[in-house]
Amino acid sequence: MNILLTGGLGFIGSHTAVVLAEQGHELVLLDNLCNSEMTVLDKLNTITGKNLAFYKGDVRDTALIKEILKTHQIEAVIHFAGLKSVAESGSDPMKYYDNNVAGSIALFEAMKAVDVKKLIFSSSATVYGVPQYLPYDEVHPTCPINTYGRTKLQVEEILQDLANANPDWSIACLRYFNPVGAHESGLIGEMPKGVPNNLMPYVCQVASGSLSHLNVFGDDYDTKDGTGERDYIHVMDLAEGHAAAIAFVSRNAGIEMINLGTGMPYSVYDLINAFEKSASRAIERVVQGRRSGDLPIYYAKADKARVLLGWQASRGLQLMCDSSWKFQALLKGLC
Ligand code: NAD
Ligand code: WQD
C-alpha cells in the first residue's frame, strides 16, 4: 500500500517506517524537522536498504499535502506529526492548538479533497486523565489534565465527527502509553532536543555521562515502591501495532479508539534497575518532590488491540533498556 507518514523522521514514525518498509509498503515521509534530524533519513535508508521518499514540509501546508497525496497515489496516512511536551503545552498553548489541532484539520481537509480515506492517528493515553479505574480500557471517560492531552482528545473528537459524516472513511486512533526503546541496530532511537523531559531518555543521558544524576520525582506515592508506575512499551512493538492497524483500516470502515500498551506497569525504580543491568553501570539518583501534573500509576487494558488488530506487545522491560542503551552508546561513541 502507498502510505504517507507525517512526522516520519520522529521517534515513533521512524521505527514504524522500518516495519512498514520491511512489509513491502511504499512509503512517503513528511517532516518539518522541528523535532528531528535529516540524518534519521540516512539511517532509515541504511536499515531498510531502500531510498525512502521524503518531503521537508509542514502538515499545515494543505497545497503541499494535496500534491504529495496525488503524486504518490497515497492510500493511507499515518499522522504522527505533532508536538508532545506536556510542560510546553502549558506555557504555550496556542502553539499546541495550532500545530496539533489546526495541523490535523489541514491534513484531513487535504485528504478529503483528494479522496484519501484511511487514517491512523497518534493519540495518547493522556486523553484519559485521572483514572476512575485501572487498567484504562477504551471506554474509560476522557478528561485530560493538560493542554497537550486536550489537543489529542480534540483531534479524536474531530475524527469521530468526520467518521459519522463519512461512513466510508476508515480511522484508527491509537492511544499510546509510554513508548521507549530503540531499533535493534541502535541506529535510530529517541533523540530529544535539549534536556529530556521523559524518564528513559533522561536515564540514557545519565548513563552516558551527559547528565550527572536522575531526579526521581516522588517516592511517596501509593505504589509498590513509592515511585510512579507506567506502562512502558517498546517502540518496535508500537511500530508493529501500526502495521497491524494499517491492515485493519484496509479491511474495515468506521472509527476505533485503540490502546497500544503492554498492560504491565513498572515503577521508576524497576526501570532504573533494569537499565543498570543493560549499561553495566550505576545510575545516580536523587529523590525530589513530586512533579506537578504527574499521576501515581496508569496502565492499559490491551485486549481491544489483541482482538481487533491481532497484535500484542512481546518485548519486555530489559529489551527496552538494552536497546535504548545501545542507541545512546552508539550516538555518544561509547561502543
Ligand atoms: P517526535 O517529536 O519524535 O516526532 C514527531 C515528528 O513530527 C518530529 O519529527 C517533528 O519534527 C514532526 N512534526 C511536528 N510538527 C510537525 C508539523 N506541523 N509538520 C510536519 N512535521 C511535524 O514524537 P514521537 O514520540 O515520535 O511522537 C509521534 C506522535 O505520537 C506525536 O503526535 C505524539 O504526540 C504522539 N505520542 C507520543 C508519545 C510519546 O511518549 N513519544 C506518547 C503518546 C502519543
Ligand atoms: C514517567 C515516570 C515520572 C522523568 C509522558 C506524557 C504522556 C506521554 C508519555 C505523549 C513518572 C518519572 C520522569 C524524570 C522521574 N506522551 N520521572 N524523573 O509523564 O508518564 O508521560 O510521556 O503522549 O502524555 O505525559 O512519562 O517518562 O515523563 O515519566 O522520576 O526525570 O518517571 O514522575 O512517574 P509520563 P515520563
Could you give the topology of this structure?
Layout: E1 2-6, H1 11-22, E2 26-31, H2 39-48, E3 53-56, H3 62-71, E4 76-79, H4 86-91, H5 93-113, E5 118-124, H6 147-165, E6 170-176, E7 178-180, H7 199-207, E8 214-217, E9 229-230, E10 232-234, H8 235-251, E11 254-260, E12 266-267, H9 268-279, E13 285-288, H10 303-309, H11 317-331
Parallel strand pairs: 1-2, 1-4, 2-3, 4-5, 5-6, 6-11, 7-10, 8-13
Antiparallel strand pairs: 9-12
Nicotinamide-adenine-dinucleotide (NAD) binds next to α1, α5, β5 and β7.
Task: Please explain how this structure is put together.
This protein folds into 2 domains: 2-182 and 232-263 and 302-315, NAD(P)-binding Rossmann-like Domain (Rossmann fold, 3-Layer(aba) Sandwich), CATH 3.40.50; 199-228 and 264-298 and 319-331, UDP-galactose 4-epimerase, domain 1, CATH 3.90.25. It has 335 residues and is an alpha/beta fold. It contains 11 helices and 13 strands. Helices cover 41% and strands 17% of the residues. UDP-4-deoxy-4-formamido-beta-L-arabinopyranose (WQD) binds at residues 84, 86, 124, 126, 178, 197-199, 202, 214-217, 228, 230, 268, 291, 294. UDP-4-deoxy-4-formamido-beta-L-arabinopyranose is lined by residues 84, 86, 124, 126, 178, 197-199, 202, 214-217, 228, 230, 268, 291, 294.
